[in-house]
Amino acid sequence: MTTRGARTGATLDAVDERGAKAALIGYLPVGFPSLEGSIEAMVELVRSGADIVEVGMPYSDPGMDGPVIQHAAERGLANGVRTRDVFTAVSAVAEAGGTAVVMSYWNLVLQYGVEAFARDLDSAGGAGIITPDLIPDEADDWLAASDAHDLDRIFLAAPSSTPERIATIVESSRGFVYAASTMGVTGVRSEVDHHARDLVSRLKDAGAARACVGLGVSTGEQAAEVADYADGVIVGSALVRALENGGVAELAALTEQLAEGCA
Amino acid sequence: MTDLSQEQGPYFGPFGGRFIPEALIPALDEIEETWRKSQVDPAFTEELLELQRSYIGRPSLLTEATRFSAHCGGARVFLKREDLNHTGSHKINNALAQALLAKRMGKTRLIAETGAGQHGVATATAAALLDMECEVYMGEEDTARQALNVARMRLLGAKVNAVSNGTRTLKDAMNEAMRDWVANVARTHYVIGTVAGPHPFPAMVRSFQRVIGDEARGQILEAAGRLPDAVCACVGGGSNAMGIFAAFLADTEVRIYGFEAGGEGVETGRHAARFSGGRPGVLHGSATYILQDEDGQTRASHSISAGLDYPSVGPEHSYLHDTARVIYEPVVDEEAMEAVRLLSRTEGIIPAIESAHALAGAMRVGRELGPEALLLVNLSGRGDKDMTTAAKWFDYFDEGAVQV
Predict the structure, then answer these.
(1) Is residue A78 classed as helix, strand or coil in its secondary structure?
(2) How far apart are CA B254 and CA A245, in angstroms?
(3) Residue A191 is a catalytic residue
(4) Which of A107, A201, B43, B299 is least surrounded by Cβ atoms within 10 Å, i.e. has the fewest?
(5) Which domains, from first to last, does chain B contain?
(6) Predicted-assembly ipTM surpassing the 0.85 threshold
(7) pLDDT tens readout for residues B213-257
């Protein structure tokens, strides 16, 4: 077994050691605005200060995404993006010095073959997969494949998760736990923040080494607030919107601002 | 043989499960617990039975189709008349039961996805009856071809959202309903209208539709003195089919047929025949057969009937398919429309285009089994909603005529 790319645990620990409050984790979908354009944007994300890049795989039925990411995914699919393109993007991120995790709806991994996906992801230098619609209870194949290739398996926890479920999620996850407030919907800021803070502390109490928070963060100020209690700040829609509106330049500017908030 | 009708989920062989965001798991657990308790609670059973009797109009009739029989190889054909239910289809059986459960869970708001609009109308009806808020998601393509049902839902006080993303049909309506549910789960119950979605929906919806099969079994035994040789139903998500199948699964001598939408023909790629043209995968919360491309991206389905125009199918159907207990065959648009015409002309019953797929299938089965055969067909809904489609298909509108 060869481990070619950095794993998220090591990356998050390094962020901690350099004295930053939290890591910046940025999401961008493959194939938007084009395959080349998306890879260029992900590399720019790394250069502008993102520690981890969530390489999103567009899916025809993104039931957990809001309108911004839905729209980008539709464009990616219209551009003919294939599952295998995800590995090209992952390699580019790893070569640029970033840590890459794939975020994908489960059917795409399932159809590629869970073991084959794990093997190719490891070869490409990827760290693991964030699985928004796969709970540990349904993940036997993925648990085995991720063990075989020493990949991070990043399950989601929600404010509604019971203590029993939190325990299962923490135990099954490797790298970090993704603390989601409400998936796909950017909620009222103060309320979401309250939920997220509480969720992170519940995850930590349950033994999670690292918890990163994904919610409607769009500014450096908001990132700074979340960075106070989370190990990583996950930003998605705001980056996609920046890329759509102002190309790589606007994406870079927002990333720098967010990274400053996490510093 | 084990009695397949007792399957309780979460898995049906390798199918089913809960492929859904963690945020919804507690809600699914709560639904399952409330449903299980309600099953053994006489108060719930009484309330539901009373509504079935005095509001839905159950038991629904079993009608022998003596003239239509000539088109089924002379076989005796009995129709289970779910089209006579209040709101015009079997959907009310499930919607009303789930609305009662939602009340028990203290929810004040119902949401639903709908294709043909029958489930949306049923949910809007239940919400009106039980004084609940209601919001329905419907693909833009379907709001256009089922405009009357949109008006019905609005008249009943529901908010109808036309979903304009993706393929703008049932699957996208379901995605949108799921997004709403994640965001509003505290006070909202998502009334899934078919035996699909994450556990416990497939098993729970089947349990609420099983009344169709239980009644029909007793009725046909009384009318014909024996069990049918074949049971036929159309399969979109598959709730009317599971409802009638459930009562016959253990009767190994009864052949069971599910008819999917063959659209313009399975070979054209424009169809909704998951078992002829799909393969196992995960969509909308469960592992099941789906129409998908090589990568697993969902392929657009096609059918003249909005209610069958769905690229996935309830997981129990996938299990019944793989175990060969049920035979699934496609019926193309043309065959279904011919069955609409034939049943209307021979029996004076205008079926929903969805249900006409079961009728067209019964014509095939009857011709194969011959005049000694006894067929039970689930007539899951009435065709009033399909008049525009039918009038265009058969060219029944006078030139220049405008409906006002």
Answers:
(1) helix
(2) 62
(3) no
(4) B43
(5) 12-53+91-198 (3.40.50.1100), 58-88+202-394 (3.40.50.1100)
(6) yes
(7) 999 999 999 999 999 999 999 999 999 999 999 999 999 999 999
